[in-house]
Specification:
Blueprint (H helix, E strand, L loop, with lengths): L1 H9 L3 E3 L11 H13 L3 H14 L4 E3 L2 E7 L2 E7 L16 E6 L4 H7 L6 E4 L4 E6 L2 H15 L5 H16 L5 H4 L12
Antiparallel strand pairs: 1-2, 2-3, 3-4, 4-5, 5-7, 6-7
Length: about 190
């Protein structure tokens, strides 16, 4: 434990549940202790996001000095929480995008081109068949990815997706919810319909 404390204080922390050879590294208990120690020094928004993801998905699979990663957690291929400080004190209401969540999704370069105007908070890796969203809340990631799927499936266009995104967030702020915020409306690895 002394080595763990020294590593945390030095800022050079990275621990995962397996080593490069696949052998067990840190126990879940040790990773949890490390996650709590590391996140205690994070900015408020990422610290709260990390706590929420731990409550929902358990001990992170990887813990670093500025990020935590869960693999195959809930509907996600990967969840990453990053310590991103606010740019300036007046940006308190700005969404930093501290939670990045990734799904398996069959994308072509043309699909990526169609979605880029929808949101800067979406990222794509067609080679790995991945689509990701960044937000401060998991529900917003559900919303953004569900709307991206709607665009790719041809159910709505990009302008409608932007309008729906804003409308759903307004409803959410008023205490109302929609299916878009409650989970993914498509299965993992979704391929486009012809």
């Amino acid at each position: 434990m002394l080595a763990l404390a020294v590593a945390v204080s030095a800022g050079c922390v990275r621990a995962s549940k397996t080593t490069a050879s696949g052998a067990p590294a840190l126990s879940a208990e040790s990773r949890m202790e490390l996650a709590e120690r590391v996140s205690a020094g994070w900015a408020e928004s990422p610290r709260l996001a990390a706590k929420l993801m731990i409550d929902r998905y358990g001990v992170p699979d990887e813990v670093g000095s500025s990020r935590m990663i869960w693999h195959a957690s809930g509907p996600w291929k990967r969840t990453v929480v990053r310590d991103l400080p606010r740019l300036y004190s007046g940006s308190r209401d700005a969404d930093l995008g501290v939670i990045e969540q990734t799904v398996a999704y069959d994308l072509s370069p043309g699909d990526v081109e169609r979605l880029v105007p929808f949101s800067r908070r979406l990222s794509f890796d067609p080679a790995r068949m991945e689509m990701s969203s960044r937000a401060d809340r998991e529900e917003v990631n559900f919303l953004r990815l569900n709307l991206a799927d709607d665009v790719l499936q041809g159910r709505i266009g990009v302008p409608e997706a932007k309008e729906t995104f804003d409308r759903v967030l307004s409803l959410d702020a008023a205490g109302k919810t929609t299916r878009y915020l409650q989970g993914l409306s498509f299965g993992p690895g979704r391929a486009k319909t012809p």
